[in-house]
UniProtKB/TrEMBL annotation:
It comes from the Bacteria. Residues 128-280 form the Fido domain. It holds the Pfam family Fic_N. This is Fic family protein.
Length: 404
């Protein structure tokens, strides 16, 4: 593939000497070449996404599963940014059962859940727009690390990407200067809604995500908002009836290649290898989510069948699909029954291997619906195995630093 450095944008020297990258408007010029292997990847990704969407419509109560997928994505997306909190930490936080040793950054993950839910709910009222992205960012950054960095506002100062202690001189990448942020965002918003672009939706998602990360319009939280933007665009365009596709696990597993692909766009104009990488992620993620959803349905029916004559047990199973962390008082509240009745149900579920007691206490005990959580943790193991077996996407990547 020939290098075309100006295809994605240009480096512009600023008055203080550093060079910042100003992206060219989408779609790329010359146009994307979607043929051969890239066309095959697109067709496969479309099929895998379609199967996932079709399965979601057949689930007995899709909203039960969406809530857990949202939490799972929040954990993974936040871990890319350096948080240590796990899915179990988030569930304990929501159940008011935080223990000593719980990472302090659990609030960031809980904020991500709230920001995601806010964005998905607002799609019924607003188009996918810069206004909506600002609202999502405000929810994401409220009261946590980065809350002093203009939550809900696009930046008016220069930022950069690099390791701890990096500066404008040593940064790995310098996004557009402040005066170029709003023009670039305006062009991105127009592209998201431009039917004349005549590009397949998944290709548009790939372009939009890369362009958003290149603009880096917020002082903090750009990665999380950019990953959420993929799901929002798929839902806004009707490709998904419910938000069940999240690429954070794929991007976390393939982090080095992810950064290399973005860098190769900016330095060499290599859009096609990035789109191929993105489509491979959609396929892997959609297939994993489809299998997990099937396994959840099978597990649910098996467990319900075992207690089919007990209305309270059935109600408890349904609540555990939404909130898999529970105590006896909370179960009693859910079921509107006495504490001893709730405790008896929980201990029965524990004896069946459905619940695992996690405190080791005689009192104030907490249980988790462990077989359910294991299905989500299995995705991470499967993703690691897939990474080891997958062929690398062709195309070179820029390995050095940008001009300083």
């Amino acid at each position: 593939m020939a290098d075309q450095p100006q295809r994605a944008g240009r480096w512009v020297r600023q008055s203080t000497g550093y060079r910042a990258f100003v992206p060219a408007p989408l779609p790329p010029d010359p146009p994307l070449l979607i043929d051969g292997p890239l066309q095959a990847l697109l067709s496969q990704a479309d099929r895998d996404l379609g199967r996932l969407d079709a399965l979601a419509t057949l689930l007995p109560n899709p909203d039960l599963f969406v809530a857990m997928y949202v939490r799972h994505e929040a954990v993974l997306s936040s871990q890319i940014e350096g948080t240590q909190s796990t899915l179990e930490d988030v569930l304990a936080f929501e159940a008011d059962a935080v223990e000593a040793g719980t990472p302090k950054d659990v609030g960031e993950v809980v904020n991500y859940v709230r920001a995601m839910n806010h964005g998905l709910a607002r799609l019924a009222e607003l188009p996918l727009s810069l206004r909506l992205l600002r609202e999502i960012h405000a929810e994401l950054m409220q009261g946590v690390r980065g809350s002093d960095k203009s939550p809900g506002e696009f930046r008016t100062s220069q930022n950069w990407i690099g390791g701890v202690g990096s500066s404008l001189r040593t940064a790995a990448f310098i996004p557009p200067p402040p005066q170029e942020v709003m023009p670039a965002l305006g062009q991105l918003e127009r592209f998201m809604h431009d039917s004349r672009a005549e590009l397949p939706l998944l290709v548009r998602c790939a372009l939009v995500h890369a362009q958003f990360e290149t603009i880096h319009p917020f002082l903090d939280g750009n990665g999380r908002v950019g990953r959420l933007l993929i799901t929002l665009l798929l839902c806004a365009e009707g490709a998904l009836a419910r938000p069940l596709l999240y690429l954070s696990l794929f991007l976390k597993t393939h982090r080095a290649e992810y950064y290399d692909r973005l860098t190769a766009i900016r330095s060499q104009g290599h859009w096609e290898p990035w789109v191929a990488f993105f489509l491979r992620g959609v396929s892997q993620t959609a297939r994993a989510a489809t299998q997990t959803a099937r396994d959840i349905v099978q597990m649910r029916e098996t467990h319900r069948g075992a207690v089919a004559k007990n209305a309270r047990a059935l109600a408890l199973l349904d609540r555990l699909l939404v909130q898999p962390s529970v105590s006896a008082p909370r179960a009693a509240q859910w079921l509107q029954c006495s504490f001893p009745t709730a405790l008896k149900l929980l201990t029965d579920f524990e004896s069946r291997g459905w619940l695992r007691e996690v405190t080791g206490f005689g009192r104030n005990r907490q249980w988790r619906y462990q077989p359910y959580l294991d299905l989500f943790h299995r995705e991470a193991v499967d993703a690691s195995l897939a990474e080891a077996a997958a062929p690398q996407v062709t195309g070179s990547a820029f390995q050095g630093s940008p001009p300083a």
